[in-house]
Amino acid sequence: MSNNKKLSILLRGIIAENPVLILILGTCPSLAMSTSVISALSMGLAATVVLIGSNAVISALRHVIPDTVRIPCYIVIIAAFVTAVQMLLEAYLPSIYDMLGVYLALIVVNCIILGRAEMFARKNNVLDSIFDGLGMGIGFLVALVLIATVREVLGAGSFAGFEIPFISSFKIPILVKAPGGFLVYGIIIAVMNKLTEKRGGVKKKDFSCEGCPSAHLCTKTSCSELTELAAEALDTAIESKELEIENAEVKEDVENA
Predict the structure, then answer these.
(1) Which residues pair with 100 in a beta bridge?
(2) Nearest-CA neighbor of 112 among 50, 39, 19, 9?
(3) Does residue 216 fall inside a structural domain?
(4) Which of 216, 220, 242 is nearest to 229 (CA)?
(5) How many domains does one find in the chain?
(6) What string of DSSP letters covers 223-240?
(7) pLDDT value for 72
(8) I want to staple 201 with a disulfide (CB 3.0 to 4.6 A). Which of 36, 43, 69, 196 is the partner?
């Protein structure tokens, strides 16, 4: 049963809760680093290492980190892993380090990593958090490589830097530019939504908490409960106002008498 749970956590990040294609997180590095398969692969691997490490440490310290300062603590932990990855790449793979540029340092504020720390790592044990980080990292990697493959093959006529003879004559250069990135990203998301719908996935027509793929992990009050609380508060306010009006009328009658 435990192994099934670990597998479920792993696969959830790759498919059902893919951070880029389902949760729509990490859009900036996804578009910037998907102009080539090599850059996409490098960014995906770097983010995966940081995800696994930060998830493990945050989970291990979840009972120690004060709740009031947890976000700054998470950022410090994530920054430590990003710095380590930066130093290793600069020392041993300088070409990859130069290719990733400023986006390598920006992994610190990547919403996928901070989101998993807040959503999962602080609520679960170390081993589960490692599997969550691995699943989300692989999901991020797969999404980046998928987008990069379409953009590089059709936009540059090559794959991983190697020219494709027939396609290179019919390449569409705009696909490797910013507008092409948005276009390819949007089309892939549309295809993913259609496939999910065909496979029996629950398609929500609104943007409530119940429609969020991570609703089962969230401890916040659901939108339906918030609506009920708001309705109760409104009824109470109306009753209070009516009582205030009645008291004012009674007081006026007494004064007139």
Answers:
(1) none
(2) 19
(3) no
(4) 220
(5) 2
(6) HHHHHHHHHHHHHHHHHH
(7) 92
(8) 196
